[in-house]
Amino acid sequence: MDWLTNGFDTAQQCLFESVIQPVMFATGMAGLLEDGYAATGWLLVGLLQLVVMLAIIAPLQRWRPVEPLLDRAAVRTDIVYTLIHRLGLFRLALFFSVDPLWDAFFGALRMDGISTFHLDALWPGVTDLPWVSLLVYLAVFDFLDYWIHRGQHHFEWWWRLHSLHHSQRQMTMWSDNRNHLLDDLLRDAIVVTVAQLIGVAPGQFVAIVALTQLSENFHHANLRVWFGRWGERLWVSPRFHRLHHAIGIGHESVAMRPVRSPSKVMAERYVQVEPIQKPVTVLGGCNFGVLLPWWDILFRTANFELRYDPTGVRDQVQPGPDGRVRNYGRGVWAQQWRGVLRLLGKA
Prior knowledge:
The protein is mainly alpha-helical. It has one domain. Helix content is 59%, strand content 5%. It contains 15 helices and two strands. Strands 1-2 form a two-stranded antiparallel ribbon. α7 runs antiparallel to α15 (332-343). The longest helix has 31 residues, at 33-63. The N and C termini lie far apart (50 Å).
C-alpha cells in the first residue's frame, strides 16, 4: 500500500510541477494552486485508466467480441464522453459551479459544531488496515450506487435522462460515460454528500472512484466473457451487465393493464363488462449492480441467464404510443439537448 501511494504521489508531484503549475501561473490562477494540485491527482488517475483501457480491455474486445462494430461514429461519440470525464473537464466544471456550494454547506455544519463521523472507526483497528478500510467503503458506495441505479430506472423523470446511457446499440469499453450531464451531476451530488457524511478519506475516495470506473469500462466492453457459475455472483461481468442493457430485458418489465375499447364504454353503464387485459412495458429491469451482484441477489433483481442480446432502448427500434421511433441524437451536444427535451416532455 505504501509503495503504491508513494509512487502515485511522486507522479502527481511531477505532473503538477512540470505541466499544471506553469499553466496556472500563466493564466493568473496562482491563488488556486492547492486546488490545482488536487485536480492533477484526478487527471493522473484518468490518464492511468486510459492506459489500462487501451492496453488490456481493447485487446480483449478484439479477441472475443460479442458483435462486429457497424456504427463506429457512435463509438467515437462515446470516446468523447470518456475523454471529457477522464481528463477532468467535467470535474473542472463542477469545481467552478457546484463544489463551492458543497464546501460552503459542509463548512457551515462544522462551524455549528456538527462534524462527520468515520464509518471505518466503528470497528476497532480497521483504520490501521488501509486495505480493509478501503474494502468497507467500497462496499458501502457500491450499495449506494445500486440504489441510485434503481432510482434512475424507477422514476420516469430520471429515466428520461438516464435512457441516453442505454441508447448505445454498439456497446464498447467507452460506453460507460455516455450519460446526460444532468444525470451525472445528480449522481455525483449524492455520492459526494454521502462521502462527506461518512468521513471517507480523500485518497480512499479517489481510489474507490478509479476502481469503480475502470471496472465499469470492463463490463461495458464488447466482450463475450462471463465468470462462471460462482464468479458471476462475486463480481459484475460483461455478460451480467450487457443483459441490463438488453432491449426488452434489462430496463423494463411487462405488466398487464386493463384496456377498454370505446364501444364498450357505453355498454358498461348497463352491463358489467370485464376489461380487456393488454401487456404493456413499464420501467423496471434487472442487474443494477455496479461492481457487486450481491445487491441484485439480495433484492431479487438478478438475472444470470447466459445470453448476449442486442442492446439499446425499445423506443429506438419500435414506434411508441405516438407512432414514432425516438431519436436520441448522434453527437454529444445533440444528445444532451434531446435529453433536456425528454425531461421536459417535448421529445
